Amino acid sequence: MVGRRAVLTALGGGALAAVGVTAGLHTNAPFGEGLRHALGVAGQVPAVQRAVIRVERVRSRCRGQDVDLLTMVPPGVPTGGLPMSLLLHGRFGTARTAAVGRMPELLVTAVHRGSVPPFGFVAVDGGDHYWHENVPGDDPLGMLLEEVPAWLAERGFGAPFACTGVSMGGFGALLYTRRRHERREPLRAVATIAPALITSWREMAKRRAFRDERQWASLDPLRNLDRLGDAPVGVWAGDRDHFIEGTRRFIAGARPAVASITPGGHDDTHYRKVVPDVIRFLGRRVPR
After folding, report:
1. Rounded CA gap, 60 and 26, in Å?
2. What is the rounded CA–CA span in Å between residue 273 and residue 238?
3. pLDDT value at residue 49
């Protein structure tokens, strides 16, 4: 098992800057206001109510490189076997930036109030290739399927019961859902926030995330709706999101359990409005 180290970072000018080491955000160790804003726990939140966030550097055989493994759990709850949702970041993101819309703070509040049972999130660095093996030897989907459950078990957490994805991570969450269905290991819930479902190869090709149009078509959730299985899916997007056309097509074809299109764009302002509903959606499906 890889030795643990908890590293907290803050966003500054688009870069990550190390600002301290601590066992978790519920401790009294000093860390800056910018960091708390970056992780969604800024403001007058009592120390006992801060999410416990740990980041470790682990070796991924599937990706052929070291990656950050971030776990985010409510404070004061038993973590042995705690149900966890994968949290997939968007393009140009990392495990450290996967939690959008004040997600840590809102998770803690929901659990503290008893509106959802305790659960946590786990995020990993997945690169920018839409969560599949576009570059030989770099397989983020394999990492999610084969390595993340083992990493969670080593740390005493439960296996992923759900998957939550933002933007490109929404594409990845649906692809992961398909693979879990094919493996006869279905998820209990899938939450996609502003999913980057692109409707034309010309636009997708700009991202250099697929070998060719045929490969993209074979993996694109919009072209493989019948392969998702029966896991309840939730979709949240703003009506001015630049991926809204693909989102509307997905809703029309997949008929998800939750289909929420509300005023807003592809940004954290909108994410903050929908994350409470995302947490409730996941909470209703936490295994007992």
Report:
1. 28
2. 10
3. 80
